[in-house]
Amino acid sequence: MYAPLRFQSYLRPMVWGGRQLGEVLGKALPNGGTYGESWEISDHPSHASVVADGPRKNQTLRQLMEHEPAALLGEAAGQYPRFPWLVKLLDAWDWLSVQVHPNETDVVRLWPGEGSKTEAWFVLAAAPTSRVYAGLLPGVDEARLRDALRQGTVGDCLHQFAPRPGDCVFLPAGTVHAVGGGVLMAEVQQTSDATFRLYDWNRRDAQGKMRQLHLEESLACIDWDSGPIHPIHIESYPDSPSPSRESNSIRQQLVCCPYFTLEYLRNHTSFTCGGADRLQVLLVLHGRGRLETSEGVQDLVPGDTLLLPAALDAMTCHPVGDLGILLSTLPAHS
User: Fold this and answer.
1) Which active-site residues does the annotation give?
2) Which of 118, 50, 124 is nearest to 91 (CA)?
3) What is the 8-class DSSP label of residue 250?
4) For the chain, what is the total number of helices (H) and then of strands (E)?
5) Distant-in-sequence, close-in-space partners of 207: CB < 8 Å, separation ≥ 6
6) Tens digit of each residue's pLDDT (9 = 90 or more) over 136-178
7) Cβ 282 vs Cβ 273: under 8 Å
8) What gap in Å lies between CA 130 and CA 94, rounded to an integer?
9) How far apart are CA 146 and CA 211, in angstroms?
10) Rounded to whole angstroms, how far apart are CA atoms 95 and 261?
11) pLDDT per residue over 286-316, tens digit each?
12) Are 203 and 210 in contact (CB under 8 A)?
């Protein structure tokens, strides 16, 4: 636990997926199908991530959580029987369903055995025609949304915007949302696969069948008071000039919630990471670099995802040119 942990990517075919996980992020897609998700770090019962290299190669995150939880999570170990986050890369080439995730209270009665699901997206690439739907428009209540479901006009009830690389979208549990049309993004979420489909754009598969919807469950866990969700945009994202020699780096907090904090870091000179006495995950967004660890040097390229255990000593990261990372940290708990 004194070096970063890198896991094997778990690739999931999806009806709404594409090929960007391979073409842009270098994931080894096994065939010519469409892939929507790459689970980078998971302790969910449906898939336990497998360590890709190093002394713990072929061990699962579940095994590490069972035998060394304090080294992974620090003082918070007693509060998490499972690893707290599911970290993914998503290729929303087509449209995800309009969906909603339950909070801690609703999941107990609507999906016993699953966890609540608050999540955040970070947009890596977006086609000109892509859209994000996030939150209800003002004045939309249950009666209006039910009417829109009957008429097939659910999109008219949702706040929407054209995503840009460098957008972060925070989606608390209970938020109605959808995305598609060519969006490549990273996702940090609570460990849960509890998704209720409210609407699926009248999509049918090759056999003419529609995917299952969960209308009543969706309506039962919507936060009707949350309103539109607006993106947090990083003005210093790659198309703008790199950090000045005087500042050396840019650091911007994006999300602060009870489950995780997210920060964007951009550097062109060496910096330290890890050694926080708290769990962190480092995800490379753009650029390249080298990370000096107790086990040698690791190359960093876009899409790389590293788990930084709480027991980890501080390391030095050397950008090769300009390097941008997303850093997720487990909040301190009393």
Assistant:
1) 197
2) 124
3) E
4) 6, 22
5) none
6) 999 999 999 999 999 999 999 999 999 999 999 999 999 999 9
7) yes
8) 9
9) 19
10) 28
11) 999 999 988 889 999 999 999 999 999 999 9
12) yes
- What's the CA gap between 326 and 266, in Å, rounded? 9
d(CA 137, CA 333): 34
Residues 77 and 90: their CA atoms lie apart, in Å, by 28
Helical ranges in the chain per DSSP H: 20-23, 61-67, 69-73, 104-110, 142-151, 215-221
Q: How far apart are CA 25 and CA 251, in angstroms?
A: 24
Count other Cβ atoms within 10 Å, centred on residue 103. Answer: 17
Length of the chain: 334
pTM, two decimal places: 0.95
Read off the DSSP letter of residue 278: S
Six-digit token pair at 153?
Answer: 């006009």
CA dihedral over 216, 222, 227, 229, signed as positive or negative:
negative
- Residue pair 96/180 in contact by the 8 Å Cβ criterion: yes
Nearest to 116 by CA among 174, 179, 47: 174
List the chain pLDDT tens, one digit each, 334 residues: 778 999 999 999 999 999 999 999 999 998 889 999 999 999 999 999 999 998 999 999 999 999 999 999 999 999 999 999 999 999 999 999 999 999 999 999 999 999 999 999 999 999 999 999 999 999 999 999 999 999 999 999 999 999 999 999 999 999 999 999 999 999 999 999 999 999 999 888 767 788 899 999 999 999 999 999 999 999 878 765 555 554 568 999 999 999 999 999 999 999 999 988 999 999 999 999 999 988 889 999 999 999 999 999 999 999 998 999 999 999 987 4
Q: From the CB of residue 72, how many other CB atoms can be counted at a distance below 10 Å?
A: 26
The three-point CA angle 75-116-193 to 5° equals 110
